[in-house]
Amino acid sequence: MSEAALVVDQVTKSYGDFNAVNNVSLSVNKGEAIALLGHNGAGKTTLFKLAQGLIKPTSGTVSITCKKSDIGYLPENISFYDQMSAEETLVYYARLKNAPLKQVNGILELVGLAPFQKRRIRTYSKGMRQRLGFAQALLGNPSLLFLDEPTGGLDPVGREELFEIINKLICQGTSVVFSSHVLRELENKVEKIAIMHSGNLIANDTLDNLRRQSNMPSHINLKISDKAQMANWEIYLSSFADSGTKILNKSNDTFYISCSDKVKKAFILYITACDLSFEDIDVLPLSLADIYIKMCQDQNSEQSTQKIAV
Amino acid sequence: MKNIFIIANKEFKDSLRNKWIIFTTLLLAVLSITLTLSIGSSSHLAASSLSVAIVNLSSLSIYLIPLIAILLSYDAIVGESERGTLLLLLSYPVSRLSILSGKLLGHLCILSFAIIVGFGCSVLISTMLHGMPIMQDILAFLQLIFSSILLGGVFISLSYMISCFVKERATAAGIGLFVWLLFVLLFDLTLIMILTNFENIIDEKTLHILMMFNPADIYRIINLTGFENIRMFSGLNSVTEYMALNIVQMYFILIAWLCLPLVIANIFFNKKEF
């Protein structure tokens, strides 16, 4: 069994009557990456602060197995002392963390700020500040990284570079907890997804398990080689014995089909067994965005029902 | 302990970057040079020109040093919180007391540099014009420097208390200016009012005790009564016999004025969530 780097146990954080985080439990194992998703104000940033002991929970406990100097943190909307340069900033934080100063230049090189390291931060763009924020989080080779919206302000290339570094760190055994609104970029990059909604943790599992739990249909695009056979194909596809499988749309040579996850394999075998020919078949897995939106919608309708009942 | 020096070093370098230290030093230097030159070269005053300069400097410093200290430090915590830099700092392995202590040390260094260099010009000018000052003048001058730094420290400490308590920089600035006005003007006006109305009830020693509730008054008494030559020029030659506390006790009270707001600031700071 893997050792936990972070355990959040039934944590609630209240501000008056408002629960910013409500009875949340989750754990992060050593070398594991977990993405924390949620709408604005869902409680992600509060959970980040709670996890690091920056704020105290109203109830519940948070335990971290490493020292505070082994934690790296990139806050959302990071700010720096504008009159300092990137190099001075990293030297300052490295000293506070007791991290080796010789690391500074290497980290600046890694995040692509080496050519600008002597420039004052007030001249930096938002993306450069974000890179510097990420750089300071890497000081002292942390074993647990908290990255709150790490890709904010970064261009697509910058985002890819950042995820490359994060992947390397995960491979080296660093535990990473991060939040992001850009769901597409998280697919295939994290093991676990945790979804927060209005302070509650509504999901905490692998993407595959979330796909299964969501019970949403996958999409299959079937391209026909001989357009004259479109009508025959339509009859053949419609006769598949599953009510959840249906043709959503069709063009002059392609069928757009919705197919439930349970019969997906059987349906593909059914297509390949057909005497009629086809040119290509695309199985589009459920995207994280689809699952996230579905879960949030379910949660919203559940809350509305509860309000009406009250 | 190491973190206190790291934070203090950053604060000092910040004041070099934003030229705060240069302008403050220049301000105090211009003030002390003007006051020393204005004494003139009449034979009566020339012999003790430094004594007269000390009397004048301490009278003006009561207003200026608390104001400089408040402007330097009123946003120490609330400013960092508003700019968003405090959250990151708190995520590092640094205690909140170390942050406050580091900032205090840094701000005291800035103020000390400005006071030593600025007021030092007075000794320089006096020596150039009237020759080497007498030992008692030198001691009185050293006392002026030390007590000025302490007075600045008291107001820095009070500013931290305000800065840890409020939620906005503007509020901290407003309260800071009120505290300045309270101690340099309103407190003494109130004392005069009380004395005028209750002349028979309040004797000199009670008055002296009451003045201990104002750090600016403690500073004034220390500097104007500490040495005989200074007492002569400040017109307070016979005051010492009516004093309830000696100079060492007054220094302790001034140090308490520095420590107490810092302890309260630390309590506020520890309770606050960012």
> In what range is the share of β-strand residues of chain B?
under 5%
Please state roughly what percent of the residues of chain A sit in beta strands, choosing from under 5%, 5-15%, 15-25%, 25-35%, 35-45% or over 45%: 25-35%
Order of helices and strands of chain B: HHHHHHHHHHHHH
Count of folded domains of chain B: 1
Helix content of chain B: over 70%
The counted number of beta strands of chain B is 0
Largest sheet of chain B: none
How many extended strands of chain A? Answer: 13
Largest interface: A-B, 25 and 21 residues
Mean pLDDT, all residues of chain B: 89
* CA radius of gyration of chain B: 20 Å
Strand order of the largest sheet of chain A: 5-6-7-3-8-9
Provide the structure class of chain A.
alpha/beta
Summary?
The complex is a heterodimer of chains A (310) and B (274). With 310 residues, chain A is of the alpha/beta class.
Defining traits:
heterodimer, A: 310 residues, alpha/beta, 6-stranded mixed beta sheet, 27% strand, B: 274 residues, mainly alpha, 13 helices, 0% strand, globular
